[in-house]
Structures are given as C-alpha cells and as structure tokens.
Amino acid sequence: MKITKLTTYRLPPRWMFLKIETDEGIVGWGEPVIEGRARSVEAAVHELSEYLIGQDPARINDLWQVMYRGGFYRGGPILMSAIAGIDQALWDIKGKALGVPVYQLLGGLVRDSIKAYSWVGGDRPEEVVDGIKKLRKIGFDTFKLNGCEEMGIIDNARKVDAAVNTVAQIREAFGKEIEFGLDFHGRVSAPMAKVLIKELEPYRPLFIEEPVLAEQAEYYPRLAAQTHIPIAAGERMFSRFEFKRVLEAGGLAILQPDLSHAGGITECYKIAAMAESYDVALAPHCPLGPIALAACLHVDFVSRNAVFQEQSMGIHYNQGAELLDYVINKDDFKMDDGHFYPLNKPGLGVEINEELVIERSKNAPDWRNPLWRFPDGSVAEW
Ligand SMILES: O=C(O)C(=O)C[C@@H](O)[C@H](O)CO
Ligand SMILES: [Mg+2]
Questions:
Q1: Known PANTHER family for this protein (predicted)?
Q2: DSSP class of residue 322?
Q3: What is the C-alpha separation between 258 and 312, in angstroms, rounded?
Q4: Which one, of 341, 302, 294, 346, lies nearest residue 108 by Cα?
C-alpha cells in the first residue's frame, strides 16, 4: 500500500482535520492542530507530505522517526502537532486495513470504560454551580474550571479570595458529591501559585492543572512539596523527551499529553508507559474535536494509569461547531454515567462526514486566543 495524498481541512470552531489517501482506497483521518496556529500546522503537514507521498503507511514507526529526526530542528508545538495528526491517520489506516480498532493493535483493552470530565464556567469562571447542575443531569460527576482570572506576578488578597470563593461555592452546593480540577491555565506566577494552592487546600480539588507555565516546570516539585492536591500538566509539552524531565524531577501526579500536540498515538502511548513507571496517572488533554478524542480513547483503553478523559462537549471554545458535528457515527461516542466506552470499529472508529467537512472548511475561522492585558497595559497570561 502507498500513501497517495494528504488533504487538510481547517474547520469551525478552531480545528483542522487531515485526510490521508492510499492507492488501495483506504483512507485515514487525523486532527493535527495547535489552537490559534492552524495555518502554521497546516504548512508543516504539507512540508512533511513531500516525504510521505509514495511511502508505505504501515511503517508507522519508521515514518514517525523520519518526521521527527529527519529534520535537523525538531519538537515544539507546530511540528509535533503536524506529526500527531499524521500519526493518528496512519493508525486509522492500519486498523482499517487489518479490520481492527487501534486499541487491539496496542495489545487490547485494559479497562471496559473511562471516566470523562467536562468543562464548566468559561474563560472567567462564572455560573459554575449552574453549569455543574446541568451537566450532572447528563451523567457527569467530574468537572474542570479555570482556577482564576488574570493574576499578577504578585497579586492581592481580593484576587486570591475571588478564586477561592468560586471553589467554596462549588463545595457548598455539592459537597463531595462531585469532583473538579482547577486549571490555572498558566495564568499564575510561581509566587502566587504557592499562595493560591495554600488557600485552596481545604477544598481538596481533584487536581490543579498547569499551576505554573510549562516553561516554569522546575516549580512543579516545589509546589508539590507544599500541598496534598495532585498537580497535573502536559498540554504544553510535546514529546517524551520533555515529559522525561518532569517525571525525573517529580512533582506531577497526572500527565496530560495532548494526542494532537505531542506526536500522536505513537508518542503518547510511550509517554503513558513512562508515566506508569513513575506511578504517575495519565489524563490526556483534549479540548479539540472527535478524531483527537478518539485517539485519546484508544490510548486510554490500553493504559492502566489512565484515570479520566477530557472532552470538549459544551466547552466555551466550541463556538460554531460542537464535538460530534462532523461525525456520522455519533452513537460510538455515547456516554453512559459519565463514562466513554471503547470505539470498536476498525481504525480510530470515527466515521467523518466528509461532505460536511468540505462544506464547512470553506468558511473556516482563523481562531485566535484572547490577548489579555493587566490594567497597567502589560500582557497578562490568558
Ligand atoms: O482544555 C484545557 O485544559 C485548556 O487549558 C484549554 C487550552 O488548552 C485551550 O485549548 C488553548 O487554546
Ligand atoms: Mg489546561
């Protein structure tokens, strides 16, 4: 079998799908994208396609190594997201060619279901109690919200109290009936992370995500030493070589590689195994579309240390399209009691409505994340 064509479709809300065609008519789909830099990833995919066209799609490991090591410069969000989407599509082709779901190619199921969690509250956490009430009605009992709004490098007690108050309202309303992660979203400096975490400790969030920016990863072990709250990170790390360092340094209780940013199934399967060897949990990051989610689920279903799965239904970023809009087989993503179940169709198990994809790609937005500034005009982390 040979790869004959790669076609990219930038799509609402802020996604990009990749279709890889072969000379035997088998087609694979992937989701290479960095939110806000879709065109950059698209260019990287097409640069990589110069080598890929004519190659045997079955040789995923060799193609992955060529895409990663064949260029002198490597790693980072753009290149690793391009590799990720191509890798997803190659696994999709392999599964379809052999008539089995990807998880079977990775050794079969290690579990029968995986817990999902849902975002509440938007960019600036608000109406979180109402949001949780609505989502509990459809089976969720685990949630994630932004831990705070903008936070200065050294900020005041009122800002800290505002963040803590949101969490206090959740515990007041639901007690321990529900669990929630707090995503600091990299908005918080190392000094303020210490202050915030101390004040949040009594409310026992399930985890605190990106308490500092990935470029401040040396603080993870120091923050972990001051708190019992599990610390999570990973959406802005892009290869096992980055995850190696944070595992070695300690401090992270949960790794959150993104299957569309960190080299795809081939790389994230290895990252999951590395995490397990350090007794660290896996919770793949996935605020994206259905192909990315399917890739996450296949890795979840073969990784014993997978604990819960992010998904983007109702996420505040999905303006203009929802998680399953482009999927024909929506029932395969059906959730029961807040859990996903294995995708059992061959390949990734996602049947894409190509006609709709082509139609909607004609008006793809160039989504950009908001640029936040402090009152003094300096740039704030979003
Ligand atoms: O889902 C998460 O955990 C996030 O932090 C969302 C962030 O990754 C945005 O997708 C960036 O545009
Ligand atoms: Mg996050």
A1: D-GALACTONATE DEHYDRATASE, D-GALACTONATE DEHYDRATASE-RELATED
A2: -
A3: 13
A4: 302
Residue 308, strand partner residues: 115
- Whether ipTM > 0.95 holds is yes
> Taking a C-beta distance cutoff of 8 angstroms, is the pair 273, 303 a contact?
yes
Tell me whether residue 81 is in a domain: yes
Per DSSP, the three-state class of 209 is strand
Task: Name the pTM for this structure.
Answer: 0.98
372 inside domain: no
Task: Let me know whether 85 and 122 are in one domain.
Answer: no
Q: 18 forms bridges with which residues in the sheet?
A: 8, 30
* Residue 222 shares a structural domain with residue 257: yes
Cβ contacts of 137 within 8 Å, gap of 6 or more: none
**Most ligand 1 atoms within 8 A of CB, residue of 235, 293, 309, 316 to mutate:** 235
Neighbouring-strand partners of residue 179? 142
Q: Tokens representing 236?
A: 């802005």
Are 118 and 44 found together in one domain?
no
pLDDT tens sequence across 284-331: 999 999 999 999 999 999 999 999 999 999 899 999 999 999 999 999
Atom of ligand 1 nearest to the CA of 210: 5
Residue from 31, 33, 35 to probe ligand 1 pocket by mutation (most atoms less than 8 Å from CB): 35
The binding site for Mg(2+) comprises 183, 209, 235
